[in-house]
Amino acid sequence: MNYFMNPIKSYKNFNFCTIFCENVKHFSSGKKLPTVNELTKQRSKLLGLSGHYEPTPSDRSHLLKYLPKFEDLPPRSIKDSFLEGLIPLSTDENLQEKYITFLGRVRIGRLLEDMDIFAVPKDVSSPFILVTAHVDRIGYTAYQRRHNEDIKISGFVSWVGKSSMEVVVKLEQFFEGSWHKITRALFLMVARNATGTGSVSINPLKASNDMEKKIIEGGEERKLRRSQASTKHISQMVPSAEEQKLVHDLYKNIRKLRNNNKSAELSKNFVPMHKCKLSNTIFCQPEDRNFYNTVFGGFIMRHATELTWILGFQFFRHRPAIKHISDISFRKPIAVNALMQMFAKVVYTKDDYAQIIVNVFASDPMEGKRDKTNTFHFTLKSSKTVDQIYPMSYHEAMLYIDGMRHFNTSMNQNVDEVADAMDEYMLKLSKS
To answer: 300: which residues sit within 8 A by CB, 6+ positions away?
Structure first.
């Protein structure tokens, strides 16, 4: 995003549009925008990186002397950080092959990669490392994505803490003369110093108008909700009496069917949770790296999404629709030479929906170590009523309750609703 966090240069009169207007592409709506690939190359240049993989990363400790004090950082506004980019699917046939699904739509996983790239503010100088820490929620509209029409990616910084920032990223596709919303996501980014050994301060965010004030206030509310959610997690607090009763009633129903020798009915309509899982292992390569020589977060998101879709396909016995992705956590980076292991499991079902959790681990067979790095929560929709999942252990019962909570939260938030302040302000900035 626009001129955040640069202690080396002064950007009071600097216009980043002059950088990105070189070699911009024309697309079907008639407006000129830089491509995501061009934005990525420019960002690598700003970070002082060669763009080539180095088995031994260069020492960046000399950059620590450029770290500014918080009081020396000038405040920025939301409009300062606004940026738009383009995925030129209407003109680039090679890109179409990369994004197209076998049904002629657009791969969600590929879009997640682009959103994660885009979420990093574009003016982060060499002394800084900015990484994804959390993604609140990604919901998809009913719009059918087309593989041969341009997709616009836009966003801005919507909230700032002392060493973290919230970035909103939106995807729209140009079709039949207008833009159609695909999705919107909120990324929580954390700023670290050049060596990754400590946090650093970033520019404070100051509202320049009433709309920006409303957006920043919303960011404060989301920060509070994230904090409250962590203290109320199933691993921290005993489930409520209502939740315990729900699990117990399910247990009684299953037991009753067994005692009445209704095994056929049981096997037809109910499925034990431990049978609804899928896993994969990926040996990470240099091409999967981010700017800092660890595995790119978008790459992790793409593979988690595709593993979830496959599990949903097997469970539904027909192609599922991914409706929501929520509460994505990035706990630890994954080394480029690590084995990335993913474990997906259906943890909750209701009507024609299924809730799937994916846990990601970084494994080092030589040292015998395995660390949990990421967690994803997916809500999938079927075209018909699905079998009911039931837990067989206390651990699975907790997963069931946690899945139910994520499902209820996702269903209470409708991405198709009338645009809020962030969507309205993004449209205003795009037109200006």
So the answer is: 334, 340, 360, 373, 374
Q: Which of 94, 76, 77 is nearest to 37 (CA)?
A: 94
Each residue's pLDDT tens digit, 345-392: 999 999 999 999 999 999 988 888 999 999 999 999 999 999 999 999
Residues 6 or more apart whose CB falls under 8 angstroms from that of 306 comprise: 107, 109
Which residues are bridge partners to 128 per DSSP?
A: 193
Closest by CA position to 411, among listed 324, 327, 349 = 324
**3-state helix/strand/coil string of 330-357:** ECCCCECCCEEEEEEEEEEEECCEEEEE
- Nearest-angstrom CA–CA distance, 206 and 158: 10
Residues constituting the chain:
432
Three-state SS for 386?
A: coil
What's the token pair of residue 242? 């209502």
pLDDT above 70 covers a percentage of the chain that reads: 83
Nearest CA to 114 out of 77, 145, 143, 142 is that of 145
- Give the separation between CA 419 and CA 315, rounded to whole angstroms: 34
| pTM of this prediction exceeds 0.85 | no
| pLDDT over 80 (residue 11) | no
- Say which residue the tokens 């990525």 belong to: 40
If you ran DSSP here, which 8-state letter would residue 268 be given? H
What is the rounded CA–CA span in Å between residue 208 and residue 212?
6
* Tokens at 224, concatenated: 């509070």
